Amino acid sequence: MGILDKFNLDGRIALVSGGAGPLFGSSITAALAEAGATVIMASRNTERNQALAADMRAAGQQVHAEPLDITDTASIDALRHTVEERYGVVDILVNSAVVGRGGGFEEQTPETWAWSAQGNMVGLFAMCKTFMTGMLTRQRGSIINISSIYGVVANDPTLYLGTDMKQPPDYTFVKAGMINFTRYLANYHGKQGVRANCICPGGYYADQPRPFVEQYEQRCPIGRMLDDEDIKGAVVFLASDASAYVTGACLMVDGGWTAL
Ligand SMILES: NC(=O)c1ccc[n+]([C@@H]2O[C@H](COP(=O)([O-])OP(=O)(O)OC[C@H]3O[C@@H](n4cnc5c(N)ncnc54)[C@H](O)[C@@H]3O)[C@@H](O)[C@H]2O)c1
Fold it and tell me: Is the pTM of this model over 0.85?
């Protein structure tokens, strides 16, 4: 098998939580579908998801939409039942959905942290445990958890000067925990054929206030924010046999942000 063949995902079933999200979610779905996988996008906004899935199927890709609320473990169990009945056992699980009520240190409360923990901690654990069952039975699987530069380093407050943007402290907490949980999964299940890795992207350009964008670009070694193409290669690499000996890794897709 040639090296390019190893990136091919034909015949694989991929599940992407938050896979219809307008930023990274839909890029991740598109990348896996372009590489040949059947992709199930799972998030709460099913009407939008169904429309996006229909558009992608019309373009010849195998993309489907199913409902999921990662704050609700019953919804995760129901998703597994639906996915296995309709599409088969999941080979690739991408945890991209994120919940949060925003706000900075002053605005956040123990209640907003409990909400964040329910979705980003309990939900992440339940997604991995639930969908790993089939992977462990078949001794094959790749889990990709979408963390962030803010799982590795803290926010730089000078980026936000001249804007009303906030730096939510719960986000840094859950994204850092996600990285070490991924290492736990990699270590605990490596000999059973299941790999687990993180991707840590930098900031996605989403029409943020001009001072923020300029300050970000100034600090970032590559000199720009991410666009919807930037995460695709990392996702396909970690999902595919091209990364067969990569597990427990944290792949920075950050334009060099954390190299400084
Ligand atoms: N946007 C960035 O600059 C950035 C930077 C680094 C990392 N990330 C990470 O990338 C991932 C994707 O985030 P994004 O900002 O690209 O947004 P996105 O556009 O991919 O949208 C997030 C998705 O999460 C879904 N979601 C929210 N609550 C949910 C719930 N309770 N149950 C199920 N789905 C739910 C939304 O419906 C949406 O589809 C997140 O894990 C985020 O932390 C984002």
Answer: yes
